[in-house]
Amino acid sequence: MSSITLIGTGNMARAIGTLAVAGGNTVEVMGRDQAKADDLAKALGGGTTTGEWGAVPAGDIVITALLYDGVVPVVAQYGDALAGKVIVDISNPFNATFDGLAHSEETSVAQEAAKVAPAGASVVKAFNTIFRNVLENGRPNVFMAGDSGQAKADVATFVESLGLRPLDVGGLKMAHWLEGMGLVTVGLAQEGVGHWDFALGVDEFAG
User: Fold this and answer.
1) How does pLDDT run across 45-55, given as a tens digit for each residue?
2) H-helix or E-strand containing 3?
3) How far is residue 109's CA from residue 196's CA, in Å, rounded to a whole number?
4) DSSP letters along 164-184, please?
5) Is the dihedral of CA 153, 23, 36, 93 positive or negative?
6) What is the pLDDT of residues 137-148, one digit of tens each?
7) Which DSSP letter does residue 196 get?
């Protein structure tokens, strides 16, 4: 199984952490508010520990369960503490009206995080196309993008331990388009599907 560190104490950290513990993974929680980190670790159970904010994470896979505008600053703040780690960005940089991305260029939060990550760290985009309620109750596909084949293999192993299906969409530049897919899910929830209890996935058909 995998060893993971969750940086963040919100709903997505709780959802991923719950699945991680159930899947037999080793889990650590880090948060700016130590009391919230301690509370989440206690709620997750399964031997979940807490780490000090900014210290070297215990997990080989570090999931930044943060709002999009906090990811790059936190990766920069942690700096060399993330050396050799696989950093998983799960964020969606939506604009204020949820009809576009907050950045105007063809980039992504994951790509910008990779620019400030220390040498030896690898960034993978994953989980951003899945609503929290679906992650808690369903078995969605998990799309992921990254430049390191080994990092994606490690994340895929972790995803499979959650009972979910990992799907590699290519290099880290594809993270931009995964963020676009996140935007599509919101549009579908508001319009075509009309509710939030669904996820995008891949159906394979025999020729």
Assistant:
1) 999 999 999 99
2) strand 3-7
3) 24
4) -EEEEEESGGGHHHHHHHHHH
5) positive
6) 999 999 999 999
7) S
C-alpha Rg value of the chain to the nearest Å: 16
How far apart (Å, rounded) are the C-alpha atoms in residues 118 and 1? 25
Q: Pairing relation of β-strands 61-64 and 3-7?
A: parallel
85 close to 148: Cβ distance less than 8 angstroms: no
Percent of the chain with pLDDT over 70: 100
User: Alpha-carbon distance 141 to 136, whole Å?
Assistant: 13
For 115, the token pair is 């620019």
- Mean pLDDT (whole number) for 151-180: 97
pTM over 0.90: yes
Angular region, 127: left φ>0, alpha ψ -120 to 50, beta rest: left
195 φ/ψ angles, rounded to the nearest 5 degrees: -155, 175
- Distance separating the N- and C-terminal Cα atoms of the chain: 36
